[in-house]
Amino acid sequence: MSERTMKINLGPHHPSTHGVLRVVLELEGETVVDAHPDIGFLHRGIEKLAEHRTYHQFIVLSDRLDYLAAMSNNLAYVTTIEKLMEIDIPRRARYIRVILAELQRIASHLFWLGTHAHDLGAMTPLFYMLREREAVMDIFESLTGSRLTPSFMRIGGLAADIDGDFIGAVKAFTDTFAERVDDYETLLTANPIWKSRTKGVGVLDADACINLGVTGPMLRSAGNDWDIRKSHPYSSYEEFHFEIPTGKDGDVYDRYLVRIGEMRESAKIIRQVVDGLPAGPWLAKDARTAFPEKKELNTNIAALIQHFGLIMEGFKVPPGEVYHSIESPRGELGFYIVSDGGARPLRLRVRPPSFVNLQGLVRMIRGKLLSDAVAVIGAIDIVLAEVDR
Questions:
Q1: Which of 137, 113, 134, 135 is nearest to 125 (CA)?
Q2: Tens-digit pLDDT profile for residues 128-139
Q3: pLDDT under 70 in the chain at which residues?
Q4: Closest CA to 326 of 141, 119, 79
């Protein structure tokens, strides 16, 4: 550090760092000369905890990785186990998973946009976005009993089937959501203050994204249309028509436009799934992993024994290793699991998009203004529980 510069801390409890992120900034005036992110404030050790939990017990921990996209974390984890165990998932369960994952994508993007706009001085959009997000949370609560951490996915399917009330609520939401997104764009897209704070700020081109492992809306904002739902379809995504929104400049403004486009496409996917929802079972009839229905526990001793065994002892997973990833709201979310044939993972490693995407922060804010650093941090869309190592 020269005599012309000074060091300051941005965070770890600054409201615009969206969690306990501390960034040590070296400033010359208001220009960022260098930056050093410090992420070590949580120390939850979820990957280590996995080694002491059965495969079923870890589902509730996956919720806590990215608590703004818990359904996505559920989906990524259970599909990884299903891949290792070669379990065939009923078509109805796969469709319902898509509904839940896309509702979660919308809810996550809504919370991001509201708080990001608030960081940059626009208070009104936050109230608009929270209004629609609450509607999604109400749908989740009616189905799972929980709003933020539902733990609803199961290895082999779902915890329960959906009913007509759920379908009606989802249809009502998708019928009006496009108009709501129009309102957001009216507030922001052509707003000269919004554009001055976001256009040309935090540029990261496609090559830089690929070299750093950056995925999700950040990569797509730079013109690369990589999306795991298209490149490596899972859970029946190949059966639905949707576009992949992309930008061209790879700046904060393009990341905003990409996420706006993704919310519109998610609503279209949800409506396709609802209109074509098949009948049938919602849980694979695999004796190794399937929990009996709760109504059977009062009358069927075999069902009670099976339930007790799955809860207390878990089920054994064949020896081997597997990696599987999905497209979470923040990018590629993957699980790498090593099994020794027991009821608990020998090793579990998470590939969290927030942690990887944060690697681009220093490159994006070096040489920019301090106020730009706030815009860039918000545009990455990090959840610190997912960044935690």
A1: 113
A2: 999 999 999 999
A3: 1-2, 287
A4: 79
Find where tokens 């186990």 sit.
81
User: What 3-state DSSP class applies to 322?
Assistant: strand
CB 42 within 8 A of CB 384: yes
Tell me: the pLDDT tens digits for 129-179? Answer: 999 999 999 999 999 999 999 999 999 999 999 999 999 999 999 999 999
15-26 tens-digit pLDDT: 888 889 999 999
Cα–Cα–Cα angle for 180, 99, 258, rounded to 5 degrees: 50
Q: Which two tokens stand for residue 74?
A: 């559920």
pTM across the whole model: 0.96
Domains in the chain, start-ordered, CATH in brackets? Answer: 46-286+318-387 (1.10.645.10)
Strand pairing class (331-339; 6-10) = unpaired
Tokens read off for 112: 């991001």
Task: Label residues 302-333 b or e (16+ Cβ within 10 Å = b).
Answer: ebeebbeebeeebbbbeeeebebbbbbbbbbb
Q: Where are the beta strands (DSSP E) in the chain?
A: 6-10, 22-28, 31-38, 153-154, 157-158, 320-328, 331-339, 347-351
Contacts of 328 (CB under 8 A, 6+ apart): 66, 69, 72, 73, 76, 105, 216, 353
